[in-house]
Amino acid sequence: MSNPYGQRWRKARREHLRAHPLCIFCQQQGHTTPATVVDHITPHRGDMKLFWNRRNWQSLCETCHNAAKQALERSGHFRGSDLAGQPLDPGHHWNAA
Question: What is the mean pLDDT of residues 53-67?
Fold first, then answer.
């Protein structure tokens, strides 16, 4: 597989961050943080169709990408809570209807 992170990706990344400039993980916790990373919601693992699927992209700050997103991928659970103290993980038992 060739490296997909070339000029085409840099342009797509710039456009995505321009349209979605804030970190969505921080926003869920009531913070306003500029996003610097375009993250693949579902890891593409070399699948170029998934890599270029813009519905699979989200804007994150570097801290959330390197910590919260990695923890989510390892555990399958999103850590943290919103300003009201509700867990952000939709699967948390406190969020059961």
Answer: 94
Torsion-angle region of residue 46: left (phi > 0), alpha (psi -120 to 50) or beta? left
Buried/exposed 62-77: b ≥16 CB within 10 Å, e otherwise: eebbeebbeebeeeee
Rounded mean pLDDT, 10-14: 97
Note down the domain range covering 35.
Answer: 7-76
- Cβ of 40: how many Cβ atoms within 10 Å? 16
- Asked, for residue 50, whether it belongs to a domain, the answer is yes
Residue 87 lies in a domain: no
Q: Which pTM does this prediction carry?
A: 0.74
- State mean pLDDT over 1-18: 90
